[in-house]
Design brief:
By secondary structure, this protein is an alpha/beta fold. It folds into two domains: 4-199, Rossmann fold (3-Layer(aba) Sandwich), CATH 3.40.50.720; 236-421, 3-Layer(aba) Sandwich (Rossmann fold), CATH 3.40.50. The chain has 14 helices and 14 strands. An eight-stranded mixed β-sheet has the order 3-2-1-4-5-6-7-8, sandwiched between helices. The chain has a six-stranded parallel β-sheet with strand order 11-10-9-12-13-14. The radius of gyration is 23 Å and the shape is globular. Bound molecules: uridine-5'-diphosphate-glucuronic acid (UGA).
Length: 424
């Protein structure tokens, strides 16, 4: 059965969810406070780079998918999904102000609604938030409208593969407290083949944090093993290939390198650490996961200094700026600490990324941005690979234009022979 859905927030999660629910035949309204984003979505131009998003928008924008800045659109729908950001604050805790504002606005619109309305929280929030913030804020702003129900339904979308992940999830988690809410959420995913699990609100909220923390732990673990392997002259990729074949471990997320970035892992782990400490716990493992992650980019520069002697006035080519391949997102990208460290040592930086240069230009201006890898490599004293963009795999003759061939991978991607890895 097609549903009428409003989605608060047209960011990665909101927009991807919106196009996917539209693709499934639902009628979707995005409520986004940024008028530029609203205009681009309505014009079927994706405001972010995400594989498959443009085609989806072209098929549905102006038909069963529209965007607006006005909350009154909620009244045309029966389900509202909250997909606003919950960025980290100085102390690591999640900033819930956008969530609270959204809840007030939703409640305000629903004051006079007589039919049932389901609110589904998708934003990543600390356990207890749906129960202690979302429900009371919506209920009081709606003047105790008893027709409103709630669910927490976390997303597990990876940037760059988000649309594919939406239609092929490993599981769908439904945190809710009554059968009616569960039934509606189940109906939204009725043609998606995946285990669907009902939990309490808090359990569902915690599943999201624990999943991200475990994945980040796998990466930092691989990096620690990789750092030991490097000292011993062992290839960590061959080691992890053997380790990952144990079905209890699985081969995924064991790629060693310069560590994890992005808008989720660092933020969510910091939040979990803050939550633990607030409760008087000392989350030693999580703190080590973050420490290893902060240190990896510096290790890359340390290795470069060992090979090049001094960085002063040396031209260093950076291949890749995005926090991972297939995205223009540079949030918490490991390229940022690498750039700062290189600059501290007086290096001259020539950077290339297929799509992330405009994003990086907004926060780093004093480096040379190149339009091809070849341009960055020409005359370079060394090259560092910071993102596993597929196009880097085939670079060969481009490296011949370097002044000296010191090539170090922070991400394992090159087929070119004359190179070494940060921990392989
Ligand atoms: C992550 C999770 O994978 C999603 O399941 C989750 O929904 C999302 O966060 C979120 O919380 O919204 P994402 O941040 O898009 O997704 O990126 P990942 O593909 O998980 O990669 C994160 C970082 O880890 C990247 O910098 C990547 O290069 C790095 N990584 C990943 C490694 O260093 N090694 C690996 O083996 C895998």
């Amino acid at each position: 059965m097609a549903r009428r859905i409003s989605i608060i927030g047209g960011g990665y999660v909101g927009l991807v969810s919106a196009v996917c629910f539209a693709k499934m035949g639902n009628s979707v309204e995005i409520i986004e406070r940024d008028p530029w984003k609203v205009d681009t979505i309505n014009a079927a131009i994706p405001p972010i780079y995400e594989k498959g998003l443009e085609d989806c928008l072209k098929s549905h924008a102006g038909k069963n998918l529209t965007a607006t800045t006005s909350y009154t659109s909620i009244l045309n729908t029966d389900i509202t999904m909250i997909c606003v950001g919950t960025p980290d604050q100085e102390d690591g805790s999640a900033n819930l102000k956008y969530l609270e504002e959204a809840c007030k606005s939703i409640g305000n619109e629903l004051k006079n609604k007589r039919s049932n309305h389901l609110i589904i929280v998708k934003s990543t929030v600390p356990p207890g938030t749906t129960r202690n913030l979302v429900i009371p804020t919506v209920i009081s702003s709606s003047l105790n409208n008893e027709n409103i129900e709630f669910a927490f339904n976390p997303e597990f979308l990876r940037e760059g593969r988000a649309i594919d992940d939406f239609f092929n999830p490993d599981r769908i988690i439904i945190g809710c407290e009554n059968d009616r809410a569960e039934k509606i959420v189940l109906s939204l995913y009725h043609n998606i083949d995946a285990p669907k699990i009902r939990t309490s609100f808090c359990e569902a909220e915690m599943i999201k944090y624990a999943s991200n923390a475990f994945l980040a732990t796998k990466i930092s673990f691989s990096n620690e093993i990789g750092n030991i392997c490097k000292k011993l002259g062992i290839d960590v990729y061959k080691v992890m290939n053997g380790v990952g074949l144990d079905h209890r471990i699985s081969p995924y997320f064991l790629n060693a390198g310069i560590g994890f970035g992005g808008s989720c892992f660092p933020k969510d782990i910091k939040c979990l650490i803050n939550l633990a400490e607030t409760e008087g716990e000392d989350p030693q493992l999580l703190k080590s996961v973050m420490d290893i992650n902060s240190h990896q980019p510096l290790k890359l520069v340390e290795l470069l200094i060992q090979r090049i002697d001094t960085l002063k006035h040396k031209r260093i080519a950076l291949l890749g700026l995005a926090f991972k391949e297939n995205t223009d997102d540079i949030r918490e990208s490991r390229a940022i600490p690498v750039i700062l460290e290189l600059q501290k040592h007086g290096a001259i930086i020539a950077a290339y990324d297929p799509v992330a240069i405009p994003s990086m230009q907004k926060i780093v201006s004093n480096i040379e941005y190149c339009s091809t890898a070849a341009e960055a490599l020409k005359g370079a004293d060394a090259a560092l690979v910071l993102t596993e963009w597929p196009e880097f795999r085939y670079l060969q003759k481009e490296f011949d234009q370097m002044k000296s061939k010191i090539i170090i991978e922070g991400r394992k991607i090159l087929l070119y022979d004359d190179k070494e890895g940060i921990c392989w």
